[in-house]
Specification:
Two copies of one chain form a homodimer. Chain A is an alpha/beta fold and 341 residues long. Chain A has 14 helices and twelve strands. A six-stranded parallel β-sheet of chain A has the order 2-1-3-4-5-11, with helices on both faces. In chain A, helix 1 packs across helix 3 and helix 6 crosses helix 14. Strand 2 of chain A pairs antiparallel with strand 2 of chain B. The structure holds a DNA duplex (30 and 30 nucleotides).
Chain lengths: 341, 341
DNA sequence: TTCTCTACTGTGAACGCTCACAGATGCATG
DNA sequence: CATGCATCTGTGAGCGTTCACAGTAGAGAA
């Protein structure tokens, strides 16, 4: 009799083999797809597994196969973004889920500092994970190159900028999302449309700006650099940008903001300047974060399909691990119209 | 010549031993603390490790030691809470960090559904992790009992309610935080102090309510059940609760709300009812979440020491894994005074 | 009948590590 | 000069798998 708190020795493949009256090899074959196993043997093994409560020892398996059957979720962002950006939550949750469906554990790694980066790379390069889901938006991140050099399968979230090596990634169609928003602003009668961009070393920064410019041109509106201000995705930078815009071009009637968080800052500043939204100035955000709903007024924004992004990241990573070439997947965004525009 | 993308066979303990001119055993001893190793041998091994770029194969080690040197972070909450509650972010981040400092990978598990719960338990019970950091606030969670039965070391975040088994946990001093907030409200002249509690099957729900009641009594204020309304930690439930309160007791001059998110809802409802905060009614929150700063007006709230909570969770879990008895740690909270009270 | 082919099964040898043990050395003690 | 002890070192076994290989049995073709 063992107490509740003592773990008893778990069943091994040997125990199962004995219980089923077959050899280790046969049990192993059943475990790995069941090819070249007679129906009778398979049934006996299945029953034995159920009786013994057998679960494979992944360490033993990994030792011989050389694969770990696990995947890292690596975040190389300065930590404040992790706290602020609700997208990470959604992404992390959905990736965990998608991997769990395939019985693959997710190892969470956060590399905000150089030291953490080194440590995590060391772990990954040692072959302790089969692949990496990478969240790193800044241009020229050395981690990307290191991972590529080490031959570790990687799929990034968002297009990795400033990389010479080809790396697979999954992203929302930022440019088209921006186009759609600006078209919407134009369609609702706005003619002096400004923009607050994200940092221009991030894909969201450059792509959304590009979409904005393209659409202005397509709508026959003049390009005016005074209407473009760059923020850093923080709420404060949004407020700052709005003040700059009002000063430079008091006649603007719309602002396309490259993130909801910054859009909140814009709303703050506009309210403080006595501008009514959307009557005087329409505001369009990006992300459809929870903040978009709770702001005053609720934000018209662009929804990124995070559930699909996660699913595709996992799918393409596993394909890459299985030997396929790096793939890039671009997924469509969706305009969500609320009260701010 | 291997291409950049091909992983070459990593160095083993054998290679290091040959390189250093010693035996496997000596290398192993260096790797595990360096006891009973001559300084000369240790130096030779260290150099050889550096030259060969050797990293232990954790699978091989785990196979023989029976330990995985990894820890699970298990979240058994319905997923909406994961999205909404910013505390999870902070906790997860800090735990990852604390574990990384000890070179222990964190495996993230999210068990919102019954199916996910089963799968994760199976994984854990198979001994694939050495211990579990458990985040599960609801009363009588069957996962707690299952883990205890399986003899897996567990440390919970917050006191696990409705459990017959003794289990280690780390928590903020909810009750004392509530006391402090109510004392503050009283000290600033409020005399009709209502409260919006969390769900009463969560520790935050019961403890904060208890602290509220104690302090009312201590201040000589009458207990009045009409001033107590229960929410579910969501913003909407906060608004709903505020409406109920205003109806039942229009003369209240303060509300202690058991979470910032609900407090936001309370602010919404009060604004809609034409009440000024804090002039007419003071509002106190709990959590010091980012929402507390961005609400109008910024919330006076209670900060929970999440960094310390995480650090203690990791510390006590590792102690538990090392064989110590389950410990409980209660950490002090801190009043953060802003404009709402 | 004999041979070949397919479907299935069992066996030894790894995988890279730790652990127990045996042995060697040096030094102080009786 | 033997004995004990502490410090250090190497060796073999074994952790629980998978994989390659050798083998068996039965069906069908020659």
């Amino acid at each position: 009799m063992s107490t509740a708190a003592s773990r008893r020795r778990p069943a091994t493949i040997h125990d199962v083999a004995r219980e089923a009256g077959v050899s280790r090899g046969t049990v192993s074959r059943v475990l790995n797809g069941g090819h070249y196993v007679s129906p009778a043997a398979k049934a006996a093994v299945d029953a034995a597994i159920r009786r013994t409560g057998y679960v494979v020892n992944r360490h033993a398996r990994s030792l011989i196969t050389g694969k770990s059957d696990s995947v890292a979720f690596l975040l190389t962002e300065p930590q404040e973004r992790f706290f602020e950006d609700p997208n990470f939550n959604v992404l992390l949750r959905a990736c965990t889920q998608a991997l769990a469906d395939r019985d693959i554990p997710l190892i969470l790694m956060i590399a905000g500092t150089e030291d953490e980066r080194r440590r995590n790379l060391r772990y990954i390069e040692a072959g302790h994970v089969d692949g990496v889901l990478l969240v790193s938006s800044h241009s020229g991140d050395p981690v990307v190159a290191r991972l590529h050099e080490a031959g570790v399968p990687v799929v990034a979230c968002g297009k990795p900028l400033g990389q010479t090596t080809r790396i697979g990634y999954v992203a929302a169609d930022d440019r088209d999302g921006a186009r759609e928003m600006v078209r919407h602003l134009h369609a609702t009668g706005r003619r002096r449309i400004a923009t607050v961009t994200g940092p221009l070393d991030t894909p969201g920064g450059v792509e959304r700006l590009a979409g904005y410019r393209e659409t202005l041109a397509a709508c026959g509106l003049p390009a005016d650099d005074a209407l473009v201000v760059t923020g850093d995705y923080s709420r404060a930078s949004g407020a700052e940008a709005a003040r700059t815009l009002l000063e430079r071009a008091p006649d603007i009637d719309a602002v396309f903001v490259a993130s909801d968080l910054m859009a909140q800052g814009v709303l703050d500043a506009l309210a403080r300047a006595g501008k009514r939204v959307p009557e005087d100035i329409a505001v369009g955000g990006f992300d459809d974060s929870p903040a978009a709903l709770s702001s005053q007024p609720p934000l018209t924004t662009i929804r990124q399909p995070w559930d699909r992004i996660s699913a595709e990241m996992v799918r393409t990573l596993l394909a890459r691990i299985a030997g396929e070439d790096p793939a890039t997947v671009i997924l469509p965004t969706e305009l969500v119209v609320r009260e701010s525009a």
